[in-house]
Amino acid sequence: MKLGVFMVLFGGRSLEEALDYVASQGLDAVEIGTGGNPGDKHCKPDELLENDTALKNFKKAVESRGLTISALSCHGNPLHPQKHLAQADHETFLKTVRLAEKLEVPVVNTFSGCPGDHEDAKYPNWPVAPWPNDFQEVLKWQWENKIIPYWTETGKFAADHHVKIGLELHGGFSVHTPATLLRLREAAGEVIGANLDPSHMWWQGIDPVQAVQILGREGAIHHFHAKDTTIDPVNVNKYGLTDMQEYTKMLDRAWQFRTVGYGHDVKTWADIISALRLVGYDYVVSIEHEDGLMSVEEGFTKAVHNLRQVLIEEPLSEMWWV
């Protein structure tokens, strides 16, 4: 298993400066944003797709530092009911897939998106309760008319370009749990898999180890994010896990994102990494930093330190008793 980082963390640095810093920390891989919510600070798909020299130089910049690209990421909402917003995210995704093929990057990460509740809706609608029955009707309409048709067609496009899709299981989007990921995967094909982030499991009340096992048994983990979450035992009783307060209200929120090891201890992270190994995941663990209590450098270096403690275990095949 390799250690990497989501480069959006270093958006204040040039590509070369960011790569130099990542390499100096001894990491193996980088995940690079190509638009949408991650932005395209380090990677402009239009420029690289249209200019072979620029593409070659981009690839050389990464490889010359002993790094690989674990994934290209363009998280957005291609199912947004406002068609111009959906179209922009859809086009970014298609360009990212084509670029991933040219760069020989095996995974493109994004969100599943979330539709509205009817054709003329203006905003996404994320049903999270089975009653009143209106929510069940909305959910059925979304999956049958929007989610499955879109990802079946888009999944085929990705597969034709030899790229897997890593959907981040994230609240506010239609695919947000292991069950919803597997539902879409069954309908749209094995090109669909998870970009699994434990931080989003914890705040939904899902044990990441169990999520790894559920998805891993189906070969449905295409990429993995390393980010932590802490849940405040007092505030959660006031606001619940679906706390709608802004992330900046850290003292009052029910939960908040932390760097690895500052929401759950190293033993918990060791259990997650062990579960990944057990289900055959042998790819990149990509650090994502959204910790409001730490600077970029502090959060990143602490995550690297804590993850190295659990990534140095030898595979079973190399143990002396095997």
UniProtKB/TrEMBL annotation:
Keyword Nucleotidyltransferase among UniProt keywords: no
Listed Gene3D superfamilies: Divalent-metal-dependent TIM barrel enzymes
Database matches in Pfam families: AP_endonuc_2
Record domain Xylose isomerase-like TIM barrel: where: 19-301
A molecular-function term among this protein's GO annotations: isomerase activity
InterPro entries: IolE/XylAMocC-like, Xyl_isomerase-like_sf, Xyl_isomerase-like_TIM-brl
Keyword annotations: Isomerase
Protein's name in the database: Sugar phosphate isomerase/epimerase
Source organism per UniProt: Paenibacillus polymyxa
Lineage of the organism: Bacteria, Bacillati, Bacillota, Bacilli, Bacillales
